[in-house]
# Entry
Amino acid sequence: MTELRHRISFVALAAGAGLVASLPLRAAVAIGEFAGLVVGRVAGGKRAMARRHAVRTGVPASEISRHLDRTFKAYGRYWAEALWMRPKHRAEIDAGISHEGREHVEKPRDAGTGMIYVLPHLGNWEFAGALAEWLGVRVVAVAENLSNRRIRDWFIALRNGLGIDVVLATGSRQVMRDLEAAIAENAAVALLSDRDMKGRGVTADFFGEGTTLPAGAATLAMRTGAPILPVASYFRPDGGHHVVIRPPIPVEMNPEDRAAEVSRVTGEIAKELEVLIRRAPEQWHLLQPNWPSDRDGEQ
# Structure
């Protein structure tokens, strides 16, 4: 029965993606934003969680309702673009990307050290990968190992077609070895770092409350010497995207206490993610519990 449901889900996804990919980008975005707005109005649990996160970022109470509508429109736009992105659209994708901080990518690229991108669930982070490839940097992204293998393989093939290699987050030691090998080949490893999906991260203060965040970026940097670059890709009103790369986060390579250094660096990552998110908090579509108080009902 599970296999049948997976097959039906895949067929529906593939059919919908084919339809979206056949549309002009503006039309696909308009449909996605409308769908996201509808979801935001009927999905009470996700809207309540988005409200909590909006309050954390400092959105005034008088702006919350409009802010949440914009957040769910951004969420719908992300999915529409994810389904629309195809190699045949590559020229249009590249033409619609503006950027700042490219020198932070060019320096480790030219030095051959590889690099690590830490990103929030903001805007469409996959366009940051498109910019990196345009700058001559191979991108390796860590992706969730979905239980539906057909959908998982479809997304992998889609990202491969855009020049993004994928390592599945299986939880095995091989994942770290694969990422270290990519760094050794002067690639960029992209890690979504504002949510600890496995619950095995380190504690950090994030928007005023302690929570756990992934330790992978700090650990990988200490093991390879690759710089950690905070990165975000923002939606532009004209349909394009603006990628921001911030200066590298300092990492002590041979600390006396490695665990303490991983914790410190992860805390610095949290601060950088706050800066990136506060620049456009309505585009931060993290709709899951992310702090202890999200789960126990405390403010």
